[in-house]
Specification:
Elements (H helix, E strand, L loop, with lengths): L4 H27 L6 H6 L7 H6 L7 H24 L4 H20 L5 H8 L2 H31 L6
Helix pairs in contact: 1-4, 1-7, 4-7, 5-7
């Protein structure tokens, strides 16, 4: 049985869309980085390795060129991992469910150690810092965990579902 046309069209573009959303959210996170760029660095782990050569060229973590390099490299990594997840059988629904669940869990994890929301916002500056960081960690988890979930779902659907 084939997928509905709309879902098939969306799914064929999903890895590029996920990479683009991750990169844009990374730039938002850079503009609202949390205390001493902590939330930004953690949430941008898939692209932060690009900071090494840019840093050698004299750019600091707060520089615009640094954020562009991290966003571009991380976006490509997310696109590649999303493509792999798609090949392993993850669906749009699985990817979006993983993203939403992981984003919520990360946000809860970031806020739970503070005695109040005001204390949390006082530490890292804004809701934007928390939401951008949580979203990027959620996307990272969705494309990484989408692979084994896709394999499991494909095996449960049986050999007829394998493409």
């Amino acid at each position: 049985m084939s997928e509905p046309l709309e879902e098939a069209a969306l799914w064929s573009r999903w890895p590029a869309l996920a990479g683009t959303v991750w990169a844009v959210t990374c730039l938002v996170s850079h503009a609202h980085p949390g205390d001493e760029y902590g939330l930004y660095v953690v949430s941008s782990v898939l692209g932060i390795w690009a900071a090494v050569p840019v840093g050698w060229a004299g750019g600091g973590i707060g520089e615009a060129g640094m954020s562009m390099a991290v966003a571009a490299c991380g976006g490509v990594v997310v696109w590649g991992l999303g493509s792999l997840a798609r090949r392993f059988g993850a669906t749009v629904g699985v990817a979006l469910a993983l993203w939403a669940t992981l984003t919520g869990l990360v946000l809860w994890g970031l806020l739970r150690d503070f005695s109040s929301i005001d204390d949390a916002l006082g530490k890292n500056g804004s809701w934007t810092a928390y939401l951008a960081a949580s979203s990027n960690v959620g996307w990272t988890g969705a494309v990484v965990f989408g692979m084994p979930v896709g394999v499991l779902a494909r095996s449960l659907r049986g050999p007829a579902a394998a493409r």
